[in-house]
Amino acid sequence: MRQSDQEPIRFTKEFTRQEAIPEAGIRRAIEVMQSGRLHRYNTAAGETAEVALLEAEYAAYVGARYCVGISSCGSALYIALKSVGVKPGDRVLCNAFTLAPVPGAIENAGAVPVFVEIDADYLTDLADLQRKAEASKAQFLLLSHMRGHIVDMERVTAICQRLGITLIEDCAHTVGARWGDTFTGRFGKVGCYSCQSYKHMNAGEGGLLVTDDEDVIAKAILYSGSYMLYERHLSRPDLAVFEQHKKRIPNFSLRMSNLVAAMLRPQLADLDNQCQRWNRRHDLLAEALSDAPHIRIPHRPAKEGYVGSSFQFSLVGVDLAAVERFLKICSERGVEIKWFGSREPVGFTSSWESWQYIEGVQPLPNTRKILDFMCDFRIPLTFSLEDCRAIAAVIRQVAAEVFD
């Protein structure tokens, strides 16, 4: 039977449907709502806020000295930039393959992004990073571990140390992931993590910022909006550290609420198990598509302890018209694939050429060529292993119809 004569395979589950919040998180969230004490600093005598507990627990989990809860990861990135000393007009290096909140945080800090090319495995091109760092004299790197792909962090830190660059890690897509034995977010001065609905811990929205630097955390706590109640934080330096900063740091009111923390704490306790569940689904998809014509699965280094909560592949040996037809038919058959090759921003997907608030479009020919042929979709844990096999079958069938 010819491929075109086969009955089309269809997938019917939602790619945006996440698992429910754990029962322990629901119960604790209800208790917080019943108490009326949703604001992190609204605590009774002798009581410790949920946010303060989460901060201490997350710091312990990743091996950081300090952690502060923020309203979102984008806000955490903004506070991180401010806390390490980024000033208006400063240049900040950033990999070009990222999401809009990353350059948004740089813009919010009044700085100028300098975009770095990516390679065929969607990783920051470290040769281009070094060239751009030397040419721009940028003293800051905001490195996004985009879609969970982790570049060689020993090489990144060596470049930063050699050129005197302060590293901030955007770990929105790598909560629970490691490079070697070290969690992402622990290689630079600051690590920022997301708790948005499509991330590895779901509170709808929320962010976490970690650092070992007592001045950075003191500034971050003050920027977040502590109302001089920073003594109520468990994860903080000595109160004397705040004295030199407290009258010079504005309150940006970017706090995390106790309701968010109540939902997150049970998820943190089960995070490693959830990461293993994601990887089983990701690895099944990778195996099922590994020999499919016109499909290239990115290489993942041995030291990359990734969390496969999304899946990416590149289409090879085809033109852009064929890519668009492939995506359209996959969508019609229930497989929702995002495409960073679109010249218009769509939903959560956009590229550096669409961020026109940045003065001048920076030419990035290698990144453009890679994104034009890169396909991307989430793997919610509401999908079973059998669901992942069905998704792979749809992709293989449509690729055979369109490209052969």
Can you tell me about this structure?
This protein has 404 residues and is of the alpha/beta class. It folds into two domains: 247 residues, Type I PLP-dependent aspartate aminotransferase-like (Major domain) (Aspartate Aminotransferase, domain 2, 3-Layer(aba) Sandwich), CATH 3.40.640; 133 residues, Aspartate Aminotransferase, domain 1. The protein contains 13 helices and 14 strands. A seven-stranded mixed beta sheet has the order 1-9-8-5-4-2-3, with helices on both faces. A four-stranded antiparallel beta sheet has the order 10-12-14-13. The chain is globular, with a radius of gyration of 22 Å. The protein starts with 22 loop residues before the first helix and ends with a helix.
What's the structural blueprint in terms of helices and strands?
Elements: H1 23-35, H2 50-62, E1 66-70, H3 73-83, E2 91-95, H4 101-108, E3 112-116, H5 126-136, E4 140-144, H6 153-163, E5 166-170, E6 178-179, E7 182-183, E8 190-194, E9 207-211, H7 214-224, H8 239-243, H9 258-269, H10 271-289, E10 295-296, E11 304-305, E12 310-315, H11 320-332, E13 338-339, H12 365-372, E14 374-378, H13 385-403
Parallel strand pairs: 2-3, 2-4, 4-5, 5-8
Antiparallel strand pairs: 1-9, 6-7, 6-11, 8-9, 10-12, 12-14, 13-14
Helix pairs in contact: 1-9, 2-9, 3-4, 3-7, 5-6, 10-13, 11-13
